[in-house]
Specification:
- The chain is of the alpha+beta class.
- It has a single domain, classed as 3-Layer(aba) Sandwich (NADH Oxidase).
- Helix content is 38%, strand content 14%.
- It is built from eight helices and four strands, in the order ααβαααβαβαβα.
- A four-stranded antiparallel β-sheet has the order 1-2-4-3.
- α2 packs antiparallel against α6.
- The longest helix has 22 residues.
- It is globular.
Length: 213
């Protein structure tokens, strides 16, 4: 039997069966919360590199891996991103958002001001790569971002995902080609001293799960 040179196989390297591992991971991610007030205290960039390496292992449609992670540490670039994001967010809160949407956001205490974009030591801007043609690009990039957030949380860092809309200004600031489309940006750092988070109720697993047996 000849092997198609474009389709090589290797033994599946699976972890040892560990029924308790899912519960441990559940307990870890259950402590994750979105932080809006960041400390300017430096963060080891190797943590970010390792978290991106974890994200890069995510499955993707046709294995196209349609993601690009742009790590922003320069203060001037962060300021330009903040300026662009706040311009779009001001328009959103002033005229683009429906009243229903604004009422849904009210318990979170958010507005057009985005100081986290300059306070956080790192911004990770995640782009969708649309050349060569990707498959299930948003699903693939979304899974990778989930891995990224979990890895950063496991290292003890806080994150805030942000999607100013439209986001094409990020291409100009970060000199990214047209075939890369902004997906979201993630502020990364430690919580500021005295930072608080809203008291929110999560749905129980039973509320969001259906078993077909």
């Amino acid at each position: 039997m000849t092997c198609n040179p474009r389709h090589r196989e290797q033994p599946a390297a699976l972890r040892a069966y560990d029924p308790a591992a899912a519960a441990r991971f559940r307990d870890l991610v259950a402590t994750r919360r979105t932080i809006r007030d960041f400390s300017t205290e430096p963060v080891d960039p190797q943590i970010v590199r390792d978290a991106i390496a974890a994200a890069n292992t995510a499955p993707s449609g046709a294995n196209r891996q349609p993601w690009r992670f742009v790590v922003v540490a320069a203060d001037d670039a962060k300021q330009r991103i903040r300026d662009g994001a706040e311009a779009e967010e001001r328009a959103f809160y002033d005229s683009r958002a429906s009243q229903e949407w604004l009422e849904a956001l009210a318990p979170l205490g958010t507005d057009w001001r985005k100081p986290h974009l300059t306070a956080a030591p790192f911004l990770i801007v995640v782009f969708e790569v649309h050349r060569p043609k990707p498959y299930y690009v948003k699903e693939s990039v979304g899974i990778a971002v989930g891995f990224l957030l979990a890895a950063l949380h496991a290292a003890g860092l806080a994150t805030l995902t942000h999607t100013p809309s439209p986001m094409r200004f990020l291409n100009a600031i970060l000199d990214r080609p047209a075939e890369e489309r902004p997906h979201l940006l993630v502020a990364v750092g430690r919580p500021a001293r005295g930072a608080t988070v809203p008291v929110l109720e999560r749905k129980s697993p039973d509320d969001v799960t259906v078993w077909v047996e």
